[in-house]
Specification:
alpha+beta, two-stranded antiparallel sheet, about 45% helix, about 20% strand, elongated
Length: about 90
């Protein structure tokens, strides 16, 4: 039996929120591993995924903040990518 009306919207919203939380948690985990090699640096998530208005075509916007330009450049050059298996560093 198909759900209708508010039940469908709630169900879709719940699935969407769960997917968002899974992606953010995976990103947070991999970012933590990366940052463990770079003392004094940080990564900040912003954009549609951070706001919650992302869709299947959205990219992931991350700001790299380093203690100096060299650290930030290394973080920028070390992308974190999403694959069906989850986030991974490449």
């Amino acid at each position: 039996m198909l759900a209708t009306g508010t039940t469908t919207k709630t169900s879709v919203a719940a699935i969407r929120e769960r997917k968002r939380e899974e992606r953010i948690q995976a990103l947070r985990s991999q970012a933590g591993l990366l940052l463990s090699h770079f003392d004094g640096c940080s990564l900040w998530l912003f954009g549609s995924l951070a706001r919650g208005d992302w869709d299947a075509f959205s990219d992931v916007d991350v700001l790299a903040v380093g203690r100096d330009r060299g650290c930030a450049d290394v973080l920028i050059d070390w992308p974190i990518r999403f694959s069906p298996a989850g986030w991974r560093m490449t």
